[in-house]
Amino acid sequence: MADQKKNNISEDNNVLGGGVTPESATVQRINKRRRVIKSFESEVESMRTPAQKVADWIAALSGNIAFAIFHVIWFSFWVVANLGYIPDIKPFDPYPFGLLTMIVSLEAIFLSIFVLMSQNRQTQINDLREEVHLRVNLIAEEEVTKVLDLLARVYRHLNIPEEKDPELDRMLRPLNTKEIEEQLRAQLNIKR
Question: H helices of the chain, where?
């Protein structure tokens, strides 16, 4: 039984050429796409400035539960200590906790700056990705239109009668990106 299965696999490999099965070819394509995506991400990551690296690190650090727990503990200790509930600690920032308010305000200002820096960089990366997607989609659309055109020629060459199909006629025309853009602008009420 195992020998029979082995023979079938080797025959399939010979038919497909080069020992590649449809499943392994699909896996290879998926792995290639993943490598392209990872290389794109690693290239963008390697181009970060030191300030962007710090901003990303701070944004990642401040965006987790440990950061929140630390602040709850810190604020609780500060308030309890400055209300005089801890006998060995003399209140150093009495109610209404002006020093704490100033520290928290400064922390909020700097955190928001670092988070915005990180988000701006991420937005630039996303914009670049969207541009790549758009270009790939436009190329794919041109290729599909060409395939439809070739198929229509094959139909004519084989003298197969074609039905009048307005949708197919529309598909055979090149994509008008300006028309799509104008439709989107109209839907979003964006004026030029």
Answer: 2-16, 22-46, 50-62, 65-82, 98-157, 166-172, 177-188
Would you kindly state where each structural domain of the chain is located, as residue ranges?
1-47, 48-188
User: In which residue are the tokens 């200790």 written?
Assistant: 77
CA-wise closest residue to 115 among 165, 81, 67, 44 = 67
DSSP class of residue 1? -
Going by C-alpha positions, the residue among 26, 66, 27 that lies closest to residue 74 is 66
Residue 32 CB neighbour total at 10 angstroms: 10
Give me the mean pLDDT over the 8-31 stretch. 60
| Residue 155 near residue 172 (C-beta atoms within 8 A) | no
DSSP summary character for residue 160? P
pTM of the model: 0.56
Rg of the chain, C-alpha, whole Å: 31
> Alpha helix (H) ranges present in 158-176?
166-172
- 57-103, pLDDT tens digit by residue? 888 888 889 999 999 999 999 999 999 898 888 999 988 999 999 99
| 92 φ/ψ angles, rounded to the nearest 5 degrees | -110, -10
Distances (CA, A) of 138 to 132, 135, 169, 172, 178: 10, 5, 19, 14, 13
Give pLDDT, residue 42.
74
Average pLDDT across the chain, whole number = 80
pLDDT of 127 reads: 84
Cβ contacts of 28 within 8 Å, gap of 6 or more = 20
